[in-house]
Specification:
Elements: H1 2-11, H2 17-29, E1 31-33, E2 36-40, H3 41-49, H4 58-72, E3 76-80, E4 103-106, H5 120-125, E5 129-133, E6 136-140, H6 152-159, H7 162-173, E7 179-182, H8 191-197, E8 201-205, H9 209-221, E9 226-228, H10 235-239, E10 245-248, H11 255-261, E11 269-274, H12 284-290, E12 297-306, H13 310-332, E13 344-355, E14 358-367
Parallel strand pairs: 2-3, 7-8, 7-11, 8-10, 9-10, 11-12
Antiparallel strand pairs: 1-2, 3-4, 5-6, 12-14, 13-14
Length: 373
């Protein structure tokens, strides 16, 4: 990258002060994914500060993109900004986490519009990227689907997390195997880590059809058999197939009903992943309900907390999960003098900075086995 930007600056005819600052930002913060490079939005903020419009230097920028493509042997360049909380109307919540601020700069990223919902023709016309992290392939359409590089350490953590490995071992020992549920699957960020770690079945939900398509393509790249479960298809029927990955393009509020249809056919669900949109709170009851009540397990809650209040907020989450567990147990068990162990915060993973003074955390919450009635 430095070779490309150095050549570019040497070819500029006018004052290059702004160009030096601009390229310094690019050199420090660009990201490569397969055949695509994402340039940092902070570099373009520098242009604004120098009162330089991209249109006024469009020819110069196009030359820069050509040099980057040549020196880094890539075909596509874009710039993206944080996923907005609202859609373009500034009112409707961006529940599918669409990258509304994605801006193609170089290369053909496919049509800028699509049907709602997208068709097979839309999927085929889009530009898809495949990247490999922790030995796992992930695929997405950058114009339509977010990709968070900051999640890489959490993906790696799940691959060797003792609670995941112990659930897999226990399932192998009693021949029942084990399953996990990802209520915010996206393109398979954490879903694929559970599969790699040895979970026999993964059930995952996401509202964004582009994310689901990316997940299915990623599963193929990793040589895992995946099945997209149709709206009216019962999970019990789908479970009997050989697919390790069962995919639902629907609201995760439907997950409990789906699981109940096939509870006897499924391996025990020992892990549930609750993502961040921008809070996972709405999925906690579902997570409690789908977790195997008799064996217990773990719920992994993603939340944003102020740095100074992480422990206190994690305890609030634990108490709420405990309340939901107590409600569930009164419904499915008779009164018993023996009290089960309390729900526990097993670990708090400070994953990444979300904003100044705010940390994206993952709370591993352990749910003990239900005391037999």
């Amino acid at each position: 990258m430095e070779r490309a930007t150095t050549v570019w600056i040497s070819q500029l005819r006018e004052n290059t002060e702004w160009a030096i600052i601009f390229t310094q930002k690019i050199n420090r913060s660009y990201a490569v994914y397969g055949s695509m490079i994402l340039l940092p939005s902070t570099a373009y903020d520098q242009l604004d500060r120098h009162r330089i419009t991209a249109g006024a230097i469009d020819a110069d920028l196009q030359r820069l993109y050509e040099l980057i493509a040549q020196h880094l042997k890539i075909t596509h360049i874009a710039v993206t900004r944080p996923i907005p909380l609202q859609d373009d109307d500034k009112v409707t919540e961006n529940v599918v986490r669409a990258p509304r601020n994605f801006t193609p700069l170089h290369g053909d990223f496919g049509p800028a519009t699509c049907n709602d919902p997208p068709t097979r023709e839309d999927f085929d016309a889009a530009f898809w990227v495949t990247a490999k992290q922790n030995g796992i392939y992930q695929t997405w359409a950058p114009r339509w689907t977010m990709f968070s590089r900051g999640n890489i350490s959490e993906k790696a953590r799940l691959l060797s997390l003792p609670s995941v490995l112990s659930a897999v071992e226990e399932g192998a020992a009693d021949a029942r195997e084990c399953a996990a549920v990802d209520l915010y699957a996206g393109i398979g960020y954490f879903t694929f880590s559970y599969l790699t770690a040895g979970a026999s079945k993964l059930l995952c939900w996401d509202l964004n059809p582009w994310s689901i398509e990316g997940l299915m393509r990623g599963a193929t790249a990793n040589k895992w058999k995946a099945k997209r479960v149709a709206d009216r298809e019962t999970l019990d029927t789908a479970v009997r197939e050989e697919a390790r990955l069962l995919v639902f393009n629907e609201d995760n509020a439907l997950a409990f009903e789906r699981v109940q249809q096939a509870r006897r056919s499924l391996p025990p669900i020992r892990h549930v992943n609750c993502g961040l949109l921008p809070t996972s709170r709405g999925s906690w009851r579902t997570a409690v309900d789908v977790l195997d009540a008799h064996m217990g397990g773990w719920i992994h809650v993603h939340e944003n907390f102020g740095v100074s209040e992480i422990e206190a907020k994690a305890e609030e989450v634990r108490r709420e999960i405990q309340r939901l567990i107590d409600q569930r147990r009164r419904l499915v068990t008779v009164e018993d003098e023996r009290r089960p162990e309390p729900v526990a915060v097993e670990h708090i993973n400070r994953l990444k900075s979300y904003a100044p003074g705010v940390m994206h955390c993952v709370i591993d919450i352990y749910i003990p086995p239900q005391v037999p009635s």
